[in-house]
Specification:
homodimer, alpha/beta, Ribosomal Protein L25, Chain P, Alpha/beta knot, 5-stranded mixed sheet, 7 helices, elongated
Chain lengths: 233, 233
């Protein structure tokens, strides 16, 4: 089963007009014929099972047969993480986090950040590709990059946790993980002392992910998998 | 703290001769001076804390002050995994598995394998770099590539598990994980029916890693992290 992504439809749709990029792929690359079965997700939790009624390379059309709703997990996970200097490492994180399960990602600009600007469009494509490849129907939300201080001010309902490397009493993530989780992952040089103090002031709980010393993108995946695993037990 | 790798010494060493590659790095790139503190691991569980007594670019010498022994984990993990077609994906697995914790890796040649030859020397370099970067003193063992059938014949003491995608009763890895684990991870097209039958005949227990559909290298990391996490609780 191959999955396509078209955000502009909902569960009441009887037909779907596919965006130009996916249409070109369906028509010119895969050369799908009229009458063929096709699956399209809107990235918002549903998948339309349908029949291709037009294979025009600029706008394919699908007649909807069934709407499948994705089962909602029993938890929510938002990771705010400092993008790595090397783009491929951060893109690995985006891809793997989507495969394993994540709701929201916020790129953080921290004191020790090695990357101060992000390629949002590129990251979006990585998330879309990973969603389709894993046959998931929900696209993780990718927020704009935000500074650590600005992020502290944001009002969130989630249980707030910060994974830092300083020597202090920390709760293990697998014990702290909740139904609604927000986890901060710092840059390669860790969060600054100021940032840690600020996070504690804003009621972030210090957590530890592992005994091992992990790279930023590995810490992101370990945090993501820990929450998914613990919530599935 | 920066860690260097030189396999040819043991805990009785009073001085260490560093191999050419690391010597060049120490002498020409980092320009370490005589008298500087230096840490060297033999990749077999120990780290020598010492003083640089010669910074010759072809053979640095270290006078050993202290030998530090790595604490042994309470479990063992061997993953036999079909290398992915794209080398960077497999190298990503090698790096992340080393950061998180793994003892042994066997590249498997399966019926549906997309990669039938491996770049062993390149993979060794990835493992060494990951070990040093994570400040670990034990280099994961990388075995030569072996066919699935030949691997079945090998005598192992570990609890034998196979993660396949066919629809059958499977135990969850986090429940099955043991003190001594061998986990088989198949190629993108999964193990063949023949291979699964053979594994069952050789007492491999079918396990599931996740509800989600994971790429080969992601499955490898999920298996690796699951064992590490469960054995740490």
């Amino acid at each position: 089963m191959q999955l396509f992504y078209e955000p502009n439809f909902d569960s009441s749709a009887t037909s779907i007009s596919i965006n130009a990029m996916e249409s070109r792929h369906i028509s010119k690359v895969l050369r799908k014929a009229i009458g063929e079965e096709i699956y399209v997700t809107n990235g918002l939790g549903i998948c339309a099972e349908g029949i291709l009624i037009s294979n025009h390379p600029k706008e394919c059309k699908v007649e909807v047969k069934t709407i499948i709703e994705e089962k909602k997990p029993n938890f929510r996970l938002h990771i705010a993480i400092a993008p790595t200097k090397a783009n491929d490492r951060f893109e690995w994180f985006l891809e793997k986090a989507t495969e394993i399960g994540i709701d929201e990602i916020t790129p953080l600009l921290c004191d020790h950040s090695e990357r101060r600007r992000i390629k949002a469009e590129r990251y979006e494509k990585v998330l879309q590709a990973a969603m389709k490849q894993s046959l998931k129907y929900t696209l993780p939300i990718l927020n704009p990059m935000v500074s650590f201080s600005d992020f502290m001010e944001m009002d969130v309902k989630s249980k707030k946790m910060i994974a830092h490397c300083e020597d202090e009493k920390k709760e293990k993530l697998f014990e702290a993980a909740n139904r609604d989780n927000l986890i901060l992952i710092g840059p390669e040089g860790d969060f600054s002392i100021d940032e840690i103090k600020k996070a504690l002031k804003y009621q972030f709980i210090p957590i530890s992910l592992s005994e091992a010393r992990l790279r930023t993108e590995t810490a992101g995946i370990v945090a993501c998998h820990t929450v998914n695993l613990i919530r599935s037990i």
